[in-house]
Amino acid sequence: xxLTSAQLWEQSLKLIKGNVTEQQYKTWFEPIVFESYSPAxxxxxxxxxxPFVYEYLEENFVxxxxxxxxxxxxxxxxxxxxxxxxxxNDVDMVVESENSEDKVEKxxxxxxxxxxxxxxxxxxxxxxxxxxxxxxxxxxFIEGNSNKLPRAVGLSIxxxxxxxxxxxxxxxxxxxxxxxxxxxxxxxxxxxxxxxxRVLYVSARLFQVQYTNAVRFNTLNDFINFYQTIDVLxxxxxxxxxxxxxxxxxxxxxxxxxxxxxxxxxxACDRPPVDLQGMNERLVTRFCCGLxxxxxxxxxxxxxxxxxxxxxxxxxxxxxxxxNFIAENASGSVRDLEGVVNSLMxxxxxxxxxxxxxxAENVIKRAVKIDDQPLTVDDIVEKVCSHFHVSPEEVNGKCxxxxxxxxxxxxxxxxxxxxxxxxxxxxxxxxxxDHSTVIHSCEKVEERLxxxxxFCQVITKIENSFKLKK
Length: 470
Hints:
This protein is of the alpha/beta class. 53% of the residues lie in helices and 11% in strands.
């Protein structure tokens, strides 16, 4: 008697159960619900309770699942997941599995750098893999004061990519503030609204590797020609090119062609263009001719909003006091927030226990240095003003009295030393100066420290007050 597709699925589960531990089976495979099988497309659709479960299965069990399904359903079978993304509003999405065996048989995506001769060698307008992360969209990029402008402009660009306004878009900010998410969201939106557009996301490091291989195999012209066919080019972490002048020169020619032909360019960096010491000046000039948008670290309220959104999406129940605790201790990093929630979810699922403050404290102390909260420029200015017996208003004013100039210079020097902010950002926060003033102030303080022991003691005393504050 011929077995039904549901019975074949049950047989598959039995095979899987024999190849994993009991705990692994209960945690990751029992929650899977078989939905349907289409003989026409040879596709199985199963439902999983959250994106977390889907990602874990694909990362850790994709080989096993693929082999078992091919044994029971046939060698051409495909697996698709229906992922519950919002339990409250019954929202889901369907994503096709990426079976590792299939990956071996398929030709590699056209922008891979590990082939001597790839699809980069052709300027024909064939379909390309955009290399975008489908989980990073505008729908889950939560708006707050720190990202309102970049988000609004990014959405406008995605809705009208052929416009010459805000081209290029240069997004900068510290690690963990959401730069990669935003530029991915732009690409995903363009792909959804304009499927005919050739969209490509590439990291600066991968671009550099591709360039090196193109030179090695004498295919540089094909490399450049390929990139010149892109309609929306998104490049992440361009600060990686500061020590690669030849990569910069090649990108300049690609940039210039795309810009002149009205194509869209989106760039992300950890600092503004003026702080890219070592970048080709003509490239910096072009980076500055569009829109320069800063993404700041999310404040406490935005952290709470991000947490609530992720909690709802993953179907978790986390008490408000735990949410507030995470938001206060995640150092203003979206990446830290997501890591803590993922860890809480994993502990809750594996050990079958509710998420409470005890669990949160145990998890977060492994992910975030709670006792090492980063200093802010306001903290530094406050301590400097206390030592020099002046007010923050005076330091942030325009007066050029000697004691106020000294307090400003010390504030800028300590901010440069004890924070990860750029010189231009420090200048804005201390008396509204530009980045060159900050650099000059730091140089003056460093010169004085070399020859003035009393001044060294002053700086040490102020720095010790930071430690007392912590």
